[in-house]
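Recall that a protein's primary structure is simply its ordered list of amino acids. Everything else, from secondary elements to tertiary packing, is in principle encoded there. The following example makes that idea concrete.
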Amino acid sequence: MSMQGVAGEDKIQLSKEESQQVKLRSRKLLLSLIYPVRGRLLLSLLIVILSQALRVAGPALIALSIDWALPAALKADTTPLFLVVGGYLFAAVATASLISWFLRYAAKLSQDVLLNLRQRIFVHTQKLSLEFHEKYTSGRVISRQTSDLDSIKELLDTGGNEMIVGILYMLFTATALVFLDLPSFAILAISWVPLYFLTRWFQVNSKLMFRESRVSSAKLIVYFVETMTGIRAVKAFRKEKRNQGEYETLVEKYRHINAKVIQLFGIFDPALIMIGNISVAIILLWGGVRVLEGSLGLGVLIAAILYARRFYDPMEDLAMFYNSYQSANSALEKISGVLEEQASVPEAQKPVALANAKGEIVFDKVGFHYSNGVEVIPEFSLTVPAGQTIALVGTTGAGKSTIAKLISRFYDPTSGKLTLDGIDVRDLSAKDLRRSVVMVTQEAYLFSGSVADNIALGKPDATPEEIEHAAKAVGAHEFILALPEGYSTDVNKRGGRVSAGQRQLISFARAFIANPAVLILDEATSSLDIPSERLVQHGLKTLLADRTAIIIAHRLSTVSIADRVLVMEKGRVIEDDSPKNLISGSGKFSKMHKAWRDSLV
């Protein structure tokens, strides 16, 4: 499925072909969730069938007691009465026990299904390529894991049980009425005609509204997440009032949609009650006439009225189930859209082993454009010998970061070939590639946990001594010791206890301990202040020693440690030489370096 297809799941109106595709993938997902628990599901279904059959026996036993047991008791034969009462009590106790067991068993079953689905969403979204995460907002991913899963949970926990119990109860009730009194069943059956049209009207009108409700709910979550994520910018640019206005608009739309749904129930429920009451009144009238004529027993009439009345009891629950079903169905469509998404950077089918990478990188006529067709790299050829440090410089949009992402295989070339030690990176396993190539970006992300935990991310089995050695190598040891608990200090979310520069030093230590053959620094020193940058310069020399390094930087002080500088423009290399030779020349890099030097004065 393409990214356009994923984006299309938030559209309210779908074409016939799109709608069919969405239904097919939703059914496929549903079947894959049910298949592992099919045996347990069948057992629970058998139990609920038995419970509803016993439940429906009540009115028939009442009819039997009035028309047979009581007359016998009046003639001093109480055995039939005790038998009927005993049967009624047995049916009541057995029904309660079976329903209790079914509800507990079904609850565990639904939790197992939800666990499976929740894990699949998490695992799958992690496997998807960077392109997906750059286009599919974090708020929408969170919505899939929260509100959408909650909708499915509500259906499985309550709606599903109510639907199964309700349908079986109505089916057994109608069947019992057929054997008990066919004319009463005929009256009940006639009432199904207006009931069908009422239900159909409700389905047609509610389907679109529930889809609108899910889309509106997702937009609320997306807007909230994006606002909280960018709270610094919100406060810096005093955007609170504007955000409040936009959020109020979204909330009002969501309220309006839900109000329309409630209005539907305001029509459906009273109409349902009216149909049921009219049916019962007609059965009572016609049955009463036959009782007076002597062609129908009083007990049978009472049972027929109970059956007719109880027949409509589950209808409101079924309407509520349809509410949950529509919401859950819409949620399942969105979740299936994410799970159907294929990684734009697939795993190698037959990976070539790369045990000890040396770090030679070769771009052989590599071209690249994004899925929207925008070309970034027209045709790029470059050889980086193992152990060489090169710096990529140039204006924004020149293609520097794209080169780094191609080496890391966050994207694949659209033409040409990129090799590591002579092996096409597309033929390497993800494990070998990630072990051989490490990227340090401008935003050094720290996970919740200690400083030591974040450094050990580069080598999960690292000893405390190795962690400390890595920190010393990049110049991070002193400031770490100054933290409240040293290496055990919890950095909190996004590294709240350390500065931006300190986060970057920790990320350098993380890269050092990983010991990759190829290290990519993508604007990795841009967040460092001058003292921190000077401190890390020595660490960088240690970090880059004996490995291939790609440095992308606007600060030319970092570029000075490179063996070779490539000046890029519109996806092409326009200058390629040592920093010293380029500075002494009259090309673009020389002018850039002069401008940078002047800015320091």
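The chain is about 65% helix and 10% strand. The chain has two domains: 3-340, 361-600.
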